[in-house]
Amino acid sequence: MPRERYRIADLTVDVDAVAVTRDGEPGKQVPLPGLSFDLLVALARRAPSVVTADDLITAVWAGTAVSDETLTQRVALLRRALGDDAKNPRYVRAVRGRGYQLAAAVTALADSMPAPRRLRKTGPAVLATVVAALLALGITLFVVLLHRRTQPATTNLAASPSVQELLERAGSYLRRHQEPNNELAIELYQRALHREPDNPQALAGLSLALGQRATKFNRHGGESDQAVALAQHALARDPRLGLAHHALALAFDSKGQVSKALAGYLRAADLEPEPSAALASAANLLQVQGHLAAALETNLRAAQGKGETPIYLEVQMGATLAALGDDQAAAVWFERALELRPDNVFAAAAYARMRLSQNRPREADEIAAQAIRRGIRRPELAAIRGDVALLGGEDRKAKAFYQEALSIAPGFSEAETRLLLLDHREAGAVRPDLETRYRAALAGLRQGRAEGDEWPGGALNEALLATGFGDHAAALHALDIAIDLGARDADWLLLDPMLAGLRKEPAFTGRIERIRGLVAAERQRAGGTAARM
User: Fold this and answer.
1) Residue 162 resides in a domain
2) Taking burial as the number of CB atoms within 10 A of a residue's CB, which of 36, 107, 227, 406 is the most buried?
3) Same-domain status, 290 and 225
4) What distance in Å separates the CA atoms of residue 300 and residue 304, rounded to the nearest whole number?
5) Residues 319 and 401 in one domain
6) Model pTM?
7) Residue 116: inside a domain, yes or no?
8) Which domain holds residue 58?
9) Averaging pLDDT over each range in 65-74, 136-145, 216-225, 445-454, which range is the top one?
10) Does residue 117 or residue 41 have the better pLDDT?
11) Cα 433 from Cα 402, distance rounded (Å)
């Protein structure tokens, strides 16, 4: 039969060989993951038509339930592999509200079959020899086929990886902590679950990958709730699976449920053979809660534990030391993190935040700007640049940065809070629409806390809102809640332009003194641990 092949611009797609090659690179394949290749073929087969999302999901995922977001990410991965540009597509074009199509003309290539060779006329002796050879060949083939039928079907292993192989490869992608690799891990875990729906390792792995998508890659489309359900399913199958406890902890972490997440990380550290990653995550949440000495000690355990050094260990060490007031040691750890892993999604934000609290805004802005130029997309980086602009009295510039933060992570409450306060300041008076937004924002923050969100930032945003709208009593109450939850950055509270009104209240000084006292006590507890760093 002729091979199924397509010509797409400078690409040749060979369906039977599962290969894509580019002009000028003979024999060199364009590396495409399996689902990306299937997506390209599905589009080629329907070209030049627009293919709906439902049709593509049916063609590529073959009945597995996936979301439109999964398809969007797969299109992005295909574009990245082909070197395509979504804004000026050469290969794959999105058609708003309809689906996707190939931007280039597609030609089906018809391979010519070789003409049958004619047998020369032969004499009887030659013919007899040929017949005998064919009979011998037929007997040999029969014996081989009979032998194969009695042997285990091991030849399929190369074409169809086992579930264990899928899990191992997914895990290797997951541990790279980069968005494209995380999406590949999700794909592989979904394949494993398609074959074994109750496999606890696959359930926990998919939960962990979705948790990473929510916490590290700015996705909040229901991943957290799905991650909780998957991890709980895994634990129902295997209650002592450390990976499942780790996954459930990360899911709670992504929802701001700090106490539940911390307990999960510590339980995972007890059960996992290589507990360093779970310990490092626990250390981060201990710092969030203000338990700085315990955070330092747990980071040290993570550094000395079995397994690879956790990817965020240097960042956490820097952040904890900064909270303890050891700015010089903190800077060493932050710079080490940026040198070892320039693509670390949290290092630059933590380092820039420390410099901002030290009233060194130009350095903070440059650290954040450099990370953004490197391609790191985190709303915190844009928000820090907005804070720098605020310190400089550039409200319009600050608004642009906060809006950029929201474009990266819609619903990022810090940016929403500051944009509302800037709109209010610009209006010069309380307008009904701004009052409505203020009440809604307050209600949302309080509702989140009622539902278990223990992140101090929510209460700090509440204090900012109340200050901006003149309710200093409510602002001080919210600040007390933030301190109880673990807020320890007194330096920034003394610098933040949006707390200028609250700083005039005599009671504000008492809150700063309380934070200073809590940090001093933690510093005393951490004395022995810091000496071992």
Assistant:
1) no
2) 227
3) yes
4) 6
5) yes
6) 0.69
7) no
8) 5-109
9) 445-454
10) 41
11) 20
